[in-house]
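Example with several molecule types.
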Amino acid sequence: MAYFIQLVIEGLATGSIYGALALAIVLVNRATGLINFAQGGMAVLSTFVAYALFQAGAPLPLAILGAVIFAFILGAAIERVIVRPFERGDPDTAVVVTIGLFVLIGGVAAFFFGYEPRQFPSFFGTTSIDLGGVFVSLRSLGTIVVLAVVVVLLQLLFRGTKLGLAMRAVADNPQSAALSGLPVSRLLMIGWGLASVLGVIAGVLVAPQLFVSPGMLDFVLVYALAAAILGGLDSPLGAVVAAWFIGVIENLAGAYIDVIGNDLKIAVPFLVMIIILIVRPQGLFGRKVVVRV
Amino acid sequence: MTLLELEDVTASYGHAQVLHGISFRVDDNDAFGILGANGAGKTTTLRAISGMVTTGGRITFDGTDITGFRPDKVASLGIAHVPEGRGTLGDLSVRDNLRVGAYQRKDRKGVAEDIELCLDLFPNLRERIGSNASALSGGEQQMLAISRAIMARPRLILLDEASLGLAPSTAQNVYRAIKRLRSEQGVAMVVVEQNAMLAFSVVDHAIVLETGATSLRGSRDELLGMDEVRRAYLGG
Amino acid sequence: MNTSFSNRVSALTTNVWVRVVFGVVVAAVLVVAPLISSKFVNYQLGLIAVFAVAILGLNIVMGYAGQVSLGQSAFLGLGAYIAAYFVTADLPIPDELKLPVSLLLCAIIPAAVGLVVALAAARLRGLALAMVTIALPIIGIPLAKRFREFTGGSQGTTVSWLRAPDWAEGILENDQWRYYVVVVIAVIMFVLARNLVRGRMGRAFRIVKENEAVAVAMGISPYRYKVMAFTIASMFGGVAGFMYLGIVQYTSPETLSFHTSINMVAAMVIGGSASILGTIFGAIYFVLVPNLANEINPSLTALFSGAILLAVLFLVPGGIVSLPRRISQVVRRLARRRGGAAPQNPSDQAPVTAGPESTEKNKGKRQGQ
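Resulting structure tokens for the full complex:
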């Protein structure tokens, strides 16, 4: 039983990483109507910035703060300069643009830091605590808490602030929003900046475990995409719930179903996702899509 | 006092020129109409003012040359545009739509008062204040769109085809509210309408557009006196 | 002037005799090349043929039918493994038949897999389909490592295969023979693709890509054609896998790598999507550029590839194959700007685009007269 709880908590922790990146993907999709395949790459580059700052002697919290600032600027700049011309156009072209970005950013990271995996300290330390027979690492618990806090903060932002209102308006109908004087260009950049920050949070949380390298978040990205789609691309809460779900069943299936084992456990979330999507194409929490001719 | 002036304004969508030199003046507290059939260029004229299309010529608002200004910049100067199709933010609640309308304002008390004013003007909205805008009927969405414009406390409201897609009685309700708005608030308006009778219930003078150029112009009475207008719009 | 230049070029390319002569020249080059080139060059040429076929399949499903597929490498790998199995396993098939049978199975089995995947996934919206295709390499690699008896596990399978037959002894070396086999297969696949794309199915694909609702109105079932496109793409991928084993003589789980899929998509776009000729450019890019970049500086390879893909998307969205057209377009626009005064545009690139009002199109019509 203790083993089961441990697996669930570990699953929630990995799920939280997927969730943070999935939130970024959903945010970008709501704001600009496209799926950003480079979301993981942007997060990794920003995590490298944290690494570099830490190596240069900055205390970890400061290094992370620096990375967050970098991530925000990176996201805003990429939206303005590279993605803007392709928004509201053919979504498949936009996908290829983000794929190009994915390759480019990976190349930039490799150019500056090489392909050797680098160690990165854990913000929550390395201790494990004993909760009545269940051993959980502080890092796992911290990760879950961070994501929960992020979700709450995002809700507060979108429902309770003027900025959040403005971002929701722009996501709904940018042309109409401009007519009410909303600075659409600036708001799109802020949206991407915010998403990029969510990405670097995921990166910094998972770096101690995966080691920082240009390809660090490649797999996480795929899971995050699966979670975002499973949650229904327009629902942030759905993405997080789906991400937790994926993290947990992946872990449980890997441990309890012998034939799957550790190497094939990545197949489980995909199979589940495919089955759910076939039965419910709009995802668990998405709205039914009306195709207008 | 001239509030808005268009001088020889042209507009194009890509390579297709759609407006060929439109000129008119709107004074403070004026209500000006732009009439004409489908495709005459009425909506494009409003879009030119708001900077939504490639524009030539000169557009002056309160002394400032605003030709080619971005839509959000135009809005920040005090022009509220209620677009064709209403532009309601469907995913947002009615209240949030109104709050968006007041985006540029900093006076929270004034905003709250204006929300009350809108709900007073359009009682239907009061019941639906918490619903998503997409759940509203066509008429209610039109009222919401106009309210959103009012929330900005604009100097000038651009109203595009307010009667489009509405049942005649609903359209009349909307125009009755517009009339009331005019008399109570005294805000200037440019009203684009296919339905000349509805327009004439509100505007003081107007132009009639035909394939992107002005074919007729005059005060309300002058126009109503013209044979062509009577034949085209009033059934002889 | 500029228009007459592009007119002259297109007049040239549609002239039948020009095409025949062009075709003969190309054929001659293809036949003679391996005889005068080194083993290394033949290897590269063979590799270009391999990926030309793989990218061709990708182009059919993505370029023509408009379905994002990020899993083509899985079919390539599957084909390679099937061919390898035929070589290494002791099968009760007469030697002369082994080659054609394995080629056939390299076409059929991946196609069957693609069919099953497409049947399930084609109902999903475009992006969900892309997700499913990503799943293929991701699930495929651990599967390949697992089924060691068939695949050789993580180490992969090395073969010594497609040796020059006895009758060519002395005339052709192994690498030259392999080149010929692979190029012949490639030519056949290209002819197949060309006929497909020009025929009814190709037209249907284009309509489905353009606007599904219109397709339905025309009696074309988007679902059916998406499934077909994907199955065909998988078949091409499998055949490319056969060819891959022939040239490389080795396959491993790495062949199915997700990065290969992405690079193939990039190559397809750079060469020119929805274009047969563009596919060849894409294959040349795919094989040569990463190699060249690696020579200069390995850590710059990814940087270059990403930058080139983005540059193409911004400047020449139709790919290399559309370069002549694009250049004449740009030249024409520059000339026009110098000639006439442009109307004042909304200052700053506004993120919202004003589309033409549908009613404005009826400029000549009038109501109520």
